Amino acid sequence: MRKTWLQKIGDKKTFPKVLKLEKRFPCYNAVHKMGADEGDPVILVNASEILPLMARVPRGKLVTIREICLKIARNHRIKGCCSLVTGILIMSIANAAEEAVQKKEKPALAKIPYWRTLKVDGFLNEKYPGGAEEQKKRLEKEGHKIIARGEKYQVADLDSHLWNF
Q: Could you report the per-residue pLDDT of 9-50, keeping only the tens digit for each?
């Protein structure tokens, strides 16, 4: 039987896990841009560390995966956070939140404003429930201007809307 989104965001006993950053890691370039160098410690976390950060973003403000990773790294007093694992968990949390709404369970999870969490550089996430189009509608409803970049969408003037943890 296939796991539900709620099951997918359950904590893994082996996380959090700290690794030394290597150039062969799929997240190397993103983590390096955040200030970590090869050999620096990088953390892989559970959804339970990401979810409260996503929940704190108020109406009118936004975060990207970068801000979430930087906050997690600071919380653990290390240089970096794996953006690949974090990105997968952010998408899973968004889908679990919608699943909670539909199933009318886990009210705290159902209230997570996941649409306020963006990809790097303010791009919308096509893997969220309803895709980038639904995220665009929700963000525009909150007053954000969304611009088309080819087949993708991006928040205009992102820096003025970023939430600092």
A: 999 999 999 999 999 999 999 999 999 999 999 999 999 999
CA–CA separation, 90 vs 63, rounded Å? 11
Across 79-104, average pLDDT: 96
Please compute, for residue 103, the number of CA atoms within 13 A of its CA located in the half-sphere on the CB side: 15
pTM across the whole model: 0.94
Please give the structure tokens belonging to residue 67.
């801000």
Measured over the CA atoms of residue 90, residue 91, residue 92 and residue 95, the dihedral's sign is: positive
Helix residue spans in the chain (DSSP H): 5-8, 28-33, 47-55, 65-75, 83-103, 107-110, 131-141
Write phi, then psi, for 85 (nearest 5 degrees): -60, -45
